[in-house]
């Protein structure tokens, strides 16, 4: 890859803000969504993204500036004062440059003669050193921690929602039915890039649930407060009640007081074993905004003490 500073068109003294600003400007112009089918733009977008990945990481940028890694993040190998950039798993390339490819041959190129054993021993030690360096340099990318906010109904029933991964990338996340606040979803391979061919990390997505104007969740049960009229409370009624699956009919028994709680079995949140919680409906008796004369006369005729202590003597 080219020099990342030249790819992003910034000086080596550029601060993080200028690097980010330049990246966003270039990525916006070169993004594949804006250049469908343009392979050159796609290649430039990939180069710009890789350059930003390196320069936006303070540790990687410092190592690149010191010459420890190349533009692709590969370790620059050192051997007795010599430096070689390339694949650290191929030590024969290093010795080929130093000794003209005279591996396994004697001094002067004759097979097996003279210093052949010494060269062979040197080659094996170099392979072990280079392989150890390669294993150390090839690291799995770090995991990224993200937060996904969903509404209560999506968390209860499950669904799909877009998540911004940053750097112009989004992914569709499958939210499982019954997801609770604090649950964490693992998106494999969506974390930070690995080094020298190391596997990328994962994205760990924490679920947050927005409060709902109607439903309240308690474990796997749903709780609802439902206003009813005085006639419905006195005479009873069949009423449409909201649930996470849509409205259902519920019978309010005659003589229901405010605060009475009715249960809708199996209308709560599902569990992994297939069982569902319940929905509890707490009825609230609401007077009309302007009680008429008939209601007022009824109230005077049917006066009763609701605060009486039945246990008093």
Give a short summary of the structure.
The chain has 313 residues and is of the alpha+beta class. It is 31% helix and 25% strand.
Q: CATH top level of the largest domain? A: Mainly Beta
Task: Tell me the fraction of residues in β-strands, as a range.
Answer: 15-25%
Q: From the helix content, strand content and strand pairing, which structural class follows?
A: alpha+beta
Major β-sheet profile: 4 strands, mixed
Mean pLDDT: 82
Instruction: Report the CATH topology name of the largest domain.
Output: HSP40/DNAj peptide-binding domain
Helix content: 25-40%
Q: Architecture of the largest domain, CATH level 2?
A: Sandwich
Overall number of structural domains: 4
Rg is: 35 Å
How many beta-strand segments?
13
The CATH homologous superfamily of the largest domain is termed Urease metallochaperone UreE, N-terminal domain
Q: Indicate the low-confidence ranges by residue numbers.
A: 91-95, 101-114
In whole angstroms, the N-to-C terminal distance is: 94 Å
* Strand and helix order: HHHHEEHHEHEEEEEEHEEEEH
C-alpha geometry: elongated
Sequence of strands across the biggest β-sheet = 8-9-13-12
- Our count of helices gives 9
Which features would summarize this protein structure in a list?
HSP40/DNAj peptide-binding domain, Helix Hairpins, 31% helix, four-stranded mixed sheet, alpha+beta, three-stranded mixed sheet, 4 domains, elongated, 313 residues
């Amino acid at each position: 890859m080219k020099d990342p500073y030249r790819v992003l068109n910034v000086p080596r003294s550029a601060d993080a803000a200028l690097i980010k600003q330049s990246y966003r400007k270039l990525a916006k112009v070169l993004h594949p969504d804006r250049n469908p089918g343009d392979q050159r733009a796609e290649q430039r977008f990939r180069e710009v993204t890789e350059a930003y990945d390196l320069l936006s990481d303070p540790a990687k940028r410092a190592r690149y500036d010191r010459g420890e890694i190349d533009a692709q993040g590969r370790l620059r190998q050192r051997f007795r004062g010599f430096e070689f950039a390339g694949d650290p798993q191929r030590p024969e390339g290093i010795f080929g440059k130093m000794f003209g490819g005279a591996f396994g041959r004697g001094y002067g190129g004759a097979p097996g003669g003279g210093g052949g054993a010494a060269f062979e021993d040197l080659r094996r030690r170099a392979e072990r050193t280079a392989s150890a360096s390669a294993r150390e340099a090839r690291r799995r990318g770090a995991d990224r921690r993200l937060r996904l906010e969903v509404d209560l109904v999506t968390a209860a029933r499950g669904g799909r929602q877009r998540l911004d991964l940053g750097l112009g990338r989004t992914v569709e996340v499958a939210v499982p039915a019954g997801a609770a606040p604090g649950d964490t979803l693992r998106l494999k391979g969506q974390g930070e890039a690995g080094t020298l061919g190391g596997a990328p990390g994962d994205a760990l997505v924490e679920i947050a649930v927005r409060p709902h104007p109607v439903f309240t969740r308690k474990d796997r049960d749903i709780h609802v407060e439902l206003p009813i009229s005085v006639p419905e409370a006195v005479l009873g009624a069949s009423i449409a009640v909201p649930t996470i699956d849509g409205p259902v009919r519920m019978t309010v028994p005659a003589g229901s007081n405010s605060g009475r709680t009715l249960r809708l079995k199996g209308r709560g949140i599902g569990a992994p074993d297939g069982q569902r919680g319940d929905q509890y409906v707490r009825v609230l008796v609401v007077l009309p905004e302007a009680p008429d004369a008939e209601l007022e006369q009824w109230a005077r005729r049917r006066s009763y003490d609701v605060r009486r202590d039945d246990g008093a003597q």
